[in-house]
Amino acid sequence: MPRIETPKGYYTATEVKKILNISDAMVRAHVQKGRIKYLLPPGRKQGFYLQKDVDKLSNELDAFLNLEEEVESTEFVSATEADIPGCVKLNRELFTVSVDTDNDTLVRKWTAWLQKNPDIIQILKRNNEVVGIVTMLPFKPKSEKFNNILTGDVSILLGDIDILPDDIEAYTPGNHILLYIAEIGVKPSLSKDLRRKYGAKIISNFMDSIVNLGRNGVIIEKIVSVGESKSGVRLLQHFGFSEIIFSRSDTRVFELDPKKSGAPIMNAYREMLKQSTSTMH
């Protein structure tokens, strides 16, 4: 049987395997899943693959591999004093507030907090740039200062708020705290795919941070956060937070009781706290 010419706009199997750098089995899998259109001429055992589909898949694979490399090049660490200007800069991108203050004042304020508790700000860095952040502020369980600030109209992170280092609690074994989740955010100017992947990495590390508080014997009496956006509200609800009645109609406040919550993250926290407590005794 004479060899048939490759139809215009199609590739041979050999060309597809070379372009995508995959095996025959993977080529068949892409065809079965509808990612590549397959043309089999009558009376032929070997068919052809739509060039447009193959080229699209090749571009997607290249983008994915580049994306994976970018994610791998990041690191999630506790912020240092040198990172604080980058943290403030990222907050300027994340939040729009009616009352804020100058960067120098914010850097001094955040640095003072960090000196009291070096683990309150966790960041995702890429090439020394802060591209993601988690800020958790621990207060005394019945802190009037925290309640007054929460009912006020000034941003805790970007306003010239009256939170002193003495208001911030240390993560010491046996210490009881109210934990305020001030922010979980990713640089908004990144591509959608990177925001999604960085966000997943940040959330995973945030969960580890909560569990580690239990491992270190820190007793969380209550966790509080504010839902600033639809995605933020969904995230809090995913973690098991419940919305509470709050005095300000423009603010949605959510709480989580570590003693009663059946959320997986709280189950893991309690287990670690139990182990830590038994070790201390």
Instruction: Please indicate the count of domains.
Output: 2
Low-pLDDT runs of 5+ residues are: none
Give the CA-CA distance, first to last residue: 84 Å
Category from helices, strands and their pairing: alpha+beta
Largest sheet: 7 strands, mixed
What is the strand content?
Answer: 15-25%
Assign a percent range to the helix content: 40-55%
Work out the number of β strands.
10
Order of helices and strands: EHHEEHEHHEEHEHEHEEH
Number of distinct helices: 9
CATH topology of the largest domain: Aminopeptidase
Task: Please tell me about this protein's structure.
This protein is 43% helix and 19% strand. The protein is an alpha+beta fold and 281 residues long. The chain has two domains: 10-70; 76-280, Aminopeptidase (3-Layer(aba) Sandwich). The protein has a seven-stranded mixed β-sheet with strand order 4-5-6-7-8-10-9. The chain has a three-stranded antiparallel β-sheet with strand order 1-3-2. Helix 4 (84-94) crosses helix 5 and helix 7 (192-215) packs parallel to helix 9 (264-280). The longest helix has 24 residues, at 192-215. The chain is elongated, with a radius of gyration of 26 Å. The protein starts with 9 loop residues before the first strand and ends with a helix. The model has no long low-confidence stretch (mean pLDDT 86).
